[in-house]
Amino acid sequence: RTPGRRSSGSITRSVMIAGVTPRTTVAVFAGSFAFRRTLPPYLSSRKGAAATRTPGTSNSTLNPTTRRPVLGRRSRQVTMAASSSSSGLLAVHVSVKVKEGMEDDFIAASLANATNSVQEPGVSRFDLIREVGDPKNFTLVEVYNKDDAPAAHKETAHYAAWRDAVADMMAEPRTNVKYETILPANEDGWAVPSALSSGQKEAGEAKDLIDVHVFVSVKPDCVEAFKAASIENATNSINEPGVTRFDFLQEKDDPTKFALVEVYNSDDAPAAHKETAHYNKWRETVADMMAE
């Protein structure tokens, strides 16, 4: 299998440590991974759960990986109208595995980098997420709003400091997967809160959220139908009281692969989501679209 990717059906959990998130959003992928997010104080004071997919992973069936947020920003987006052909922002999911015993040092260095990165004009989101099942695994969720933003980010002093600081902490080379954002459908939906963009913090704890990333691979002739069904599901899901983010992403190098980034603000929210009419309609609609 491709390095950095998980096979279909696998499930992992993580925690969010920190992150920059505009209004509520969710990402859709072929497969699902759950992570416990450890978000910063500016996220939410309520407990929550989210799932995430490891960058580079390819799955056709829904496979959740759970991670805990380490850094993250929270905002709510109630309307997420989008057409299946809309052009979005660039989302980059970076998968990191650190050496045992280096986890705390990695978090410290990464929080410093993320706190500064979210203040860059070309950055719309910068989350740090830690896997629940294996605390040595982390995911960086970076969203850029300008074509030259990724390159500009790598020219900053804080990125260079982070790169050098974590170099010897890596248990294996970092991998990444690039996506085009489908939902939220416009740049306003990804806007960084003014407090974060000025280096301040908001109330709440990232660790109180659950971050789940679902990765999906669909049949080539079902791509547009899958996008339409998933846009409808995400648009309804974001209005659930237990949902803080519901992003829908499409892989740039392989348009048959998608990612759902779901962030929940209570322990029972993931189960409640699966009881909704819109989720069950989506599940049944896309069942025969799965490539694996």
TrEMBL record:
<feature type="domain" description="ABM">
    <location>
        <begin position="210"/>
        <end position="292"/>
    </location>
</feature>
<dbReference type="Pfam" id="PF03992">
    <property type="entry name" value="ABM"/>
</dbReference>
<feature type="domain" description="ABM">
    <location>
        <begin position="90"/>
        <end position="178"/>
    </location>
</feature>
<feature type="region of interest" description="Disordered">
    <location>
        <begin position="45"/>
        <end position="68"/>
    </location>
</feature>
<dbReference type="GO" id="GO:0016491">
    <property type="term" value="F:oxidoreductase activity"/>
</dbReference>
<dbReference type="InterPro" id="IPR011008">
    <property type="entry name" value="Dimeric_a/b-barrel"/>
</dbReference>
<protein>
    <recommendedName>
        <fullName>ABM domain-containing protein</fullName>
    </recommendedName>
</protein>
<dbReference type="InterPro" id="IPR007138">
    <property type="entry name" value="ABM_dom"/>
</dbReference>
<dbReference type="GO" id="GO:0005829">
    <property type="term" value="C:cytosol"/>
</dbReference>
<dbReference type="InterPro" id="IPR050744">
    <property type="entry name" value="AI-2_Isomerase_LsrG"/>
</dbReference>
<feature type="compositionally biased region" description="Polar residues">
    <location>
        <begin position="54"/>
        <end position="66"/>
    </location>
</feature>
